[in-house]
Amino acid sequence: MKHPFWRCGVFVAALLPPPYWLYQAWTFALGPDPGKVLLERLGQGSLVLLLLTLCLTPLQRATHWSGWALVRRQLGLWCFAYACLHLSVYLLVVLGLDFALLGDELRKRPYILVGALAWCSLLPLALTSNRFSMRRLGRRWKQLHRLAYAALGLGLLHMLWIVRSDLGQWTLYGVWALLLLALRLPGVGRRLGRGRAAS
Amino acid sequence: MLIQIPPRSHCPSSEITPESVYLSRRRFLGVAGTALGAAALPAWALADDAPRYPGVEPGRPPAWFAQKLPDTRWQAVEAPGEAITPYRDASHYNNFYEFGPDKGDPAANAGQLPTEPWTVRIDGEVGKPGQYALEDLIRPHALEERIYRLRCVEAWSMVIPWLGLPLADLLTRVEPTGKARYVAFETLVDPEHMPGQRSHFALLDWPYREGLRIDEAMHPLTLLAVGMYGRVLPNQNGAPLRLVVPWKYGFKSIKSIVRISLTEQQPYATWNRRAPGEYGFYANVNPGVDHPRWTQKRERRLPSSLFSPNLRDTLPFNGYAEEVAGLYAGMDLTRDY
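ok -> structure tokens follow
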């Protein structure tokens, strides 16, 4: 295995925050409404992990270090894991496991629907993240995994809809996402590629 | 359908003491014994800095506030069957966007706000307009403690013992004219001490403003608070003067008031103007009208914990329907939410 320390480091760094937050909730360090805090941290964590995943290809092009691509599947799966935890905390804390209410919420509240769609677009990516599926799907695998961009857009919209009074944090993620998309424009991408040829 | 009209002397089932409470009388007797012992102590033994509630930081009360405490009517309004939210939670989980968007920001950032001396401008349709020093406004009134439920529009709630005076008493003193139909309130603008007012990403425009219809303002439940938990208001809770309207969503209870105007027209209300589809001018607590983005049928009573979120049903008018529903007779509250 190439770069084992790097890969293990990324694994541990992504693994640790949720148990640490749970521990904080346990010791009342998250304040009187720990469920809500946990919900927000997991949601934003998932978004950040998706943004990080999408950083890897441009980073690889720019630096030619093979380590970036090695953690891409891992980070993508972590993004999905955080999204699943986010969903579970929502079901537990906001709905109190009242599933009849879930249908009601999905019907009435577009941001819940958009969040659910974002989760649904991550699901096939997680399911086909293994080598067998990659071989099986061939060229279509890459097309399918463009769903990551849909998940990013839906996730950002989902968050924008919940912001009540201050857009600071959201703007940060939004600008980050725009930069990543700009790097994928054909002209920009070629320039990054040319950088490699010249060096 | 059988319609039962109980005689007035009948005790409604809602007032029947739950068995658990009845059984806890032994514990109560123990506590009462201690309290009796405490009451027998001379007044000086109960120094001002002995907190009336556990975990309360004493704060630095101005002289006028400390002088008011001996005459205060403690527990003038109680919340039967409700557990008071711990002071730490009520003072560290706040929406006060002038100090930042997160719940912890007000407690972290409000400490430097100068609240003494404090002037309140009273103007509009009143016989005695003017700039009043806060202590002059409060001096003629005895403070009372009122334990109210607080229901935030974000679907969480607390139970808080406020110290203050009925807004009606103060308004009567400044003599509203016959034209006064509404009361408008304004929060301080002080970007130097209020970082939220310096943010370029804030969606609210300052000053924060709120308003009540005059009959709502004159209702005996409507309180002007200067303290909570037996002490002066912490800055993050709206020191030195805030409104408390217990049957409305929390955002109506405007903080750090510098101006009270009596007006003929319905006044500007910040959240209402920001998103009229989400926040009505009345903003009465109403489980029948959802916020477009979340349900108002239930609330999380804080402190909640991860595995028991402490969800409970939200009551119409936050449980104060008996007192205030009459104010809205004939109105369609799904339209005038």
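Chain A touches chain B through 30 residues (CB under 8 Å).
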